[in-house]
Structure prediction request, 543 residues.
Amino acid sequence: MNYLLVFFLAMIVSVALIPLMIRLAPRLGMVDHPDARKVHSAPIPRAGGVGIAIGALIPVLIWVSTGPALRAYLVASLILLGFGMWDDARTLGAAVKFTGQFLAAVIVVYYGHVYVLSLPFMDLHRLPLYLAQPFTVFALVGMINALNVSDGLDGLAGGLSILSLGAIAYLALQTSGYSAVAIALATLGGVLGFMRYNTHPARVFMGDAGSQFLGFTLGFLAVFLLQKVNPALSPALPLLILGLPIADLLAVIVQRLYLGISPFVATKHHVHHRLLARGFDHYEAVVIIYAIQTAFIVLALLMRYDADSAIFAVYLGICGLLFLFLFVMTHLGLKVHASRAPSRLTTAIRAVRNHPLFYATPVRLITLLIPLLFVAVSLLAREVPRDFGIGASVLAMLLLLHLVFSSATDSIVLRAVSYVTAAFVIYLESKYLTGRAPLLDAAEIGYFVVLATAIGLAVRYSAAVEFRTTPMDYLVILIVLSVGLLTGDSTHRAYIGAMAIKLVIVFYGCEFIAARMKSRWNLLNLSSLATLVILGARGLGLA
Prediction:
């Protein structure tokens, strides 16, 4: 099974489908209007979950071999997607929402035979069937709602899901759990496609259709991983894999009951609400939660075979410190950023940002260096595989038709083609420009250092507002580091890690150029077209 195809097909379907859903959302009534409990101030379509779910399910249908567990998962996912879209359009009551959630969970447990066999501290003893199945149903419903209520800030639920899905994919891969890996990577691809439109300020929300599907998928995969793929893992491990959403949901329920409020009434007691109330801005709140979830994920990978008591102690310790921090700040009335007056550092930065050294020169470098890389690698690579030639030829024809017949200066097609071209180029550069003279290797390192520095300066000091770093960038950095640390032997890790770092640098450069160009006949698009034509000709043996 080609996991890259699974991942990329899911991401492409998600990226392509979500803009359509954004346009259809007002007609379908799938729009989230602001109110006192929400942090957005304008109506936002809540139709992104359709792109996530459809993007994830199509590759699973194509590549994952069928069986009772998979069939149950697919049917349950479609049920949740239907109920979620209904809720996003009509705002259902709790009873109807729970009906869909329990129906999905029951199908997976009783038809798919995916259920918890043992609980923490039970050693080798198994739960009797009459307890194991109902417990799993309630656990799945709980996870659905845990992720659902964490969907309160732009990029938050999606980012948490990405971290958990990555951990599940890695753990499943260690024991050849191919179906679990494929489902996790397909879902991860769907979420990443959605995050393209959901980083703050969001153009679309995932809505209940997305959050319920993701919560259900995470719960299903956690049970499937521990009970079917690798039963040797600690039964307490899902606490760390699923992380903060579980603790947040339980803490909110306890707080509502303590205050005499129904657990089903929406309030502003969640962790992200409390961070905002303490003066953290949107980005800071999201990054803090990402950091805590990342700590849980790293610990899950390190402690996967540890004693249940150790996992419980670590999980409760981190959650306890977080809630103690929030309690103390609330009790004392403390806030960060109490004064909005700019610091001396901020004042100094503002004073120099208009100097050409900090914005004009880096922009020119990015605009020239990336097209130069594209064309140079296409000409100098020792070999171009035939499948690259076929793919490049198709993309070249698509790009040429789009440039000739479309008037759009910035579209998904143009960006997608430039990103795929960048991926082709970095792969060929890493694989077929090796074994060169030390001077050329030094020049390669210097090129990427200069390009990365130029991108950093341009993003930080450019007056353009179209390109801004977001919490998604922290996820990208984390993914790159994970690729370098978690794949293969040391030599393979170094090779893959270096290639991933270079690819991220070029991706950001392409994004920066695309955000600034006012004409579709710009240097990036022309160099992409030239590169694809050259690669197509060389790969097909025409040159």
In short: The chain is about 75% helix and 0% strand.
